Amino acid sequence: MTTRDVYDVVIIGSGVGGGAVARQLAGTAARVLILERGPVLPREPENWSPESVFVDLRYRSAETWTSGERRFRPGQYYFVGGHTKFYGTAMFRFREQDFGALEHEDGVSPAWPISYGDLEPWYAQAEHLFGVRGQAGLDPTEPPRGAPYEHAPIPHEPVLADIARRLEAQGLKPFPMPAAVDFGPGGRCQRCGTCDAFPCRIDAKGDAETCLVRPALLQPNVQLTSEAYVDRLITDDTGRRIVAAEIIERGVKRRIRGGLFVLSAGAVNSAALLQRSATARHPRGLANSSDVVGRHFMNHNCTGLMALHPVKRNHTRFPKTLSINDCYFSDLEGKGPPLGNLQLLGKLSEPILRGAMPAWTPRVLRQWVAEHSVDWYVMSEDLPHRDSTVRVNTDGTIDLRWHRTNMGAHRKWVRTASRIIQRTGYPIVLAKPFTMDTPSHQCGTVRFGNDPATSALDPLCKAWDHENLYVVDASFFPSSAAVNPALTIAAQALRVGHHLRTEVLQ
Ligand SMILES: Cc1cc2nc3c(=O)[nH]c(=O)nc-3n(C[C@H](O)[C@H](O)[C@H](O)COP(=O)(O)OP(=O)(O)OC[C@H]3O[C@@H](n4cnc5c(N)ncnc54)[C@H](O)[C@@H]3O)c2cc1C
C-alpha cells in the first residue's frame, strides 16, 4: 500500500447518491476518492440504436442473478453515472404525505424519519444541479415548493397536446412531467427520439455523470477510479470503524484506506457488499445488528401500456412530457386506497417490441404498432416486505426474492388508466407488466429510521453500528412512494454531503 491509497473520504459508486456527496465535498480540504466498478460510458453511434440497446443488450451487465432456482440477467448498468445514464429523466419530488405513514390496500407504507420539509431545500438544489424543467401549480398532489421551477417545461408535441386536452375534458389534471433535459433554444437536446433507457450521446440528459461527478472532478480534491470493483469493507479490531475498502482493479486486489466511507453502489449491490463484508464480530454483515440489511427490497409495481389508434400515427420525438396523479391517493371517485402515478414512457420502436411481443408476430405488424402507439407507464407503490431479500450466493452471485405487494391496487390502476387512455381516443390498449428482471426502481434494502433495532441507518444515513459509514443510494428508502426515485436520492445525498462537509469533516 502507498500513501496514494489513503483518503479522507472514499465514495463507493458514482450514481446519484455517490455523485451528490462528491459534488458537496468538491472544493473542500478533504481528499475524496470515488470508486466505480464500471467504465466511463463510451460515446458511440450505438448509444441511440434500439437494436444495440434492446436486442444486443450492449450496455446491460453480463452478470446473472438467481431468484431461488431461476437464473436471470437483470437490467443492471455499471458505468460512471450509474443507472441515470439510462434513466428517463423524470425528476419528481415525493409527495408530502409519502413521508408519513400512508394506508394502502396491503398495509401501511411506513413513515420516514425525516419530513418533506427537511428535504425541500435539497430537492430545490437537486433540481438546480440537474437542470430540471417543469411547471408548478398544476399537479393536485404536488408538495409545497419554496420557488418555481427554474426552467420552463418541455412543450407537448401535437399528438400529446391533443391527449392532454382530452384528459382535461375528462376532468383530470394532466401536468408537464418534470424532466432533467437541456431542452429548448440554445439547449443541447436534439430530440433524437430515444432518451428513456438509452444513454445520451450529446450530454443533453441531466444525469449523475454530467451534473454531479464531472463537475466534482473539476476540483483537485476529488478523484475517480473507474473499473474498480469494491469487494468488501474492512473494519478495525473493535468492529466500529471501517478502515479500508478491498477493491479489485483490472484483476488486481488492493486496499484503499479512508477516514469516512460513503457507500452508494445501488440498493441491490450495497446490501450485497455489506453482507460480503461479514466478520466473526458481524456475522450477518456490516451495519446489520438490526437484521434489516438485504430485506425490504422494493421496486415499484409497474406496467407498460401501449395505446393504439388505427389511423393516427405518433411521430413524437420527445415523448415523456405528460403525467397525471389524479389517482395517487385514491380512485377516480376519491375512494379507496392509493392507486399511483401515470406518465408517458419513452417511445417504443420495432426493435424494442421484439422482446415485448410474441415471437411469432411479423416484423411489419411490430412496425405498424410502433408507428401508431402512444406509450405509457403505470406505477404503483410497492410496500416493504421483510422477506423481499437480497442475499449473496456461495458463488458470490446475487439472489433476489421479491414478494409482490399491493398488486390488487396496481391491477385496479392499470384497468382505470386503460379506460382513461381509451377515452382520449385510443380504442386499443395493450398491457405488459414489468418484472423483477428490470429492477430499475430498486430501493429499501438498508433502510434509515429513528430506531437502531428496526433500521440500519440513522436519519442522516450513518450506519448505527459504525462511526464512519454512510449509505446514500436508494437503499435508505423505508418506503417507495409511487413516483420515480432519482430526485429523492439526490436530495437526501446532498443533505448528507452537506452534513459531512459542515459537521463531520471540520
Ligand atoms: C431504464 C431506466 C429508466 C429509469 N428512469 C427513471 C426516471 O425517469 N426517473 C427516475 O427518477 N428514476 C429513473 N430510473 C431509476 C434511477 O435511475 C435510479 O433510481 C437511480 O439512478 C439510482 O441511483 P443510485 O445512486 O441509488 O444507484 P445507481 O445508479 O445504481 O449507482 C450505483 C453505482 O455504483 C456502482 N457499483 C455497484 N456496485 C459496485 C461495487 N461493488 N464497487 C464499485 N462500484 C459499484 C454502479 O456501477 C453504479 O455506478 C430509471 C432506471 C432505469 C434503469
UniProtKB/TrEMBL annotation:
Ranges where the Glucose-methanol-choline oxidoreductase C-terminal domain occurs: 398-493
Keywords assigned by UniProt, alphabetized: FAD, Flavoprotein, Oxidoreductase
Name assigned to this protein: GMC family oxidoreductase
Similarity comment: family membership: Belongs to the GMC oxidoreductase family.
Domain (Glucose-methanol-choline oxidoreductase N-terminal): residue spans on this chain: 187-301
Highest taxon of the lineage: Bacteria
Cofactor(s) listed: FAD
